[in-house]
Design a protein that fits this description.
This protein has 311 residues and is α/β, with parallel strands linked by helices. It is built from eleven helices and 19 strands. Strands 5, 6, 11, 14 and 15 form a five-stranded mixed β-sheet that branches. A four-stranded parallel β-sheet has the order 3-2-1-4, sandwiched between helices. Strand 1 (3-9), helix 1 (16-25) and strand 2 (30-35) form a beta-alpha-beta unit. Helix 6 (214-229) crosses helix 7 (238-248). The radius of gyration is 19 Å and the shape is globular.
Length: 311
């Protein structure tokens, strides 16, 4: 069985190494990556990762259209003999809580598996993006709001009216058997042209680090501008368009408070919302953080702190 990971990224230099190493550890046979014109050093990380023959990446400087990019990679994987394709965003980590991803796929007769996404929340004071920022994403909401067919419009309305935060919304994404006609749509919330029936699974979940820092939040807002310039279709990237509007209205600080925790709580436009402790994402990624960064931080500490640490 051949399992291919598919990644479409732009300016994810802080997290892409951790993401790729994590997914290779799950037993993916190959990871195909399109870098859409990154300017933050992502390409340097990809060149290093590309020394592993399982990792292959190309660059595309055209307009951002993740659905088209994922479709292209999925069909490429099909031509190379892939049995399954696993679409991955840079802030997503596929996880099998009771076994292994490969074993779940080996035992499945479905043409595509739909898994729920669990969104993890960042601490309020996290200003900069770094691999280590993931270590603080140890909280989630106890009861997310579903955004399935029939309730997606309601979930969007609740966010738009500032009654719930984006991190409170639950979504589902697909792992699929590829074909020559497979088509993936933006966000991987929909897939067509797969070989076989579609099934829902609870044996796989997607750990999602949606807003991992204030800097990343602002970068997503800037990305909304690019999406609009690229001629987005109606309904696409609606959350990004909303954030761009909030930026223009001077409300990004309040929006960050609604989507980050201080103590145990979100502050959703005047309403404190309790979160629960969940270290699943932290524990999953910690073996794949860049130890050299830890050493750099260590060497900048006062000498007495370094001595205490060695002791």
């Amino acid at each position: 069985m051949q399992v291919y990971g598919l990644l479409v990224i732009r300016n994810e230099g802080d997290i892409i190494r951790t993401n790729v190493l994590y997914h290779l550890s799950l037993g993916l046979d190959r990871i195909l990556i399109i870098d859409n014109g990154s300017s933050d050093g992502t390409d340097r990380v990809l060149r290093e990762l590309g020394k592993d023959p399982r990792v292959r990446w190309t660059r595309d400087k055209g307009p951002w259209n993740a659905g088209d990019f994922f479709t292209k990679l999925a069909r490429e994987a099909f031509r190379e003999g892939a049995d399954w394709v696993v679409p991955i965003d840079a802030d997503e980590f596929w996880y099998a809580p009771r076994g292994s991803l490969r074993s779940v796929l080996e035992e499945s007769e479905a043409g595509a598996l739909r898994a729920r996404s669990v969104t993890f929340i960042q601490r309020r004071e996290q200003e900069k993006s770094s691999p280590e920022a993931l270590l603080h994403m140890t909280r989630r909401v106890p009861e997310p709001v579903a955004s399935e067919r029939g309730s997606r419009k309601l979930a969007r309305e609740l966010v738009e009216s500032q009654q719930v935060a984006n991190v409170e919304i639950e979504s589902r994404k697909w792992i699929s058997r590829p074909t020559s006609a497979i088509e993936m749509f933006r966000g991987n919330h929909r897939v067509e042209g797969v070989a076989g029936l579609k099934r829902v699974t609870d044996e796989i979940i997607l750990l999602h680090a949606l807003l991992r820092s204030q800097a990343r939040f602002r970068a997503k807002v800037d990305g909304a501008q690019r999406s609009e310039e690229a001629g987005r279709k109606p309904g696409q990237s609606s959350h990004l368009m909303r954030w761009m509007r909030l930026r223009d209205e001077g409300q990004l600080k309040q929006e960050w408070a609604a989507n980050s925790y201080a103590g145990d709580y979100l502050d959703v436009y005047g309403v404190r919302r309790k979160t629960v402790f969940d270290p699943t994402l932290r524990d999953a990624v910690v073996p794949f953080l860049d130890n050299s960064r830890d050493e750099e931080v260590h060497e900048k500490r006062p000498l007495w702190r370094r001595v205490m640490k060695r002791a």
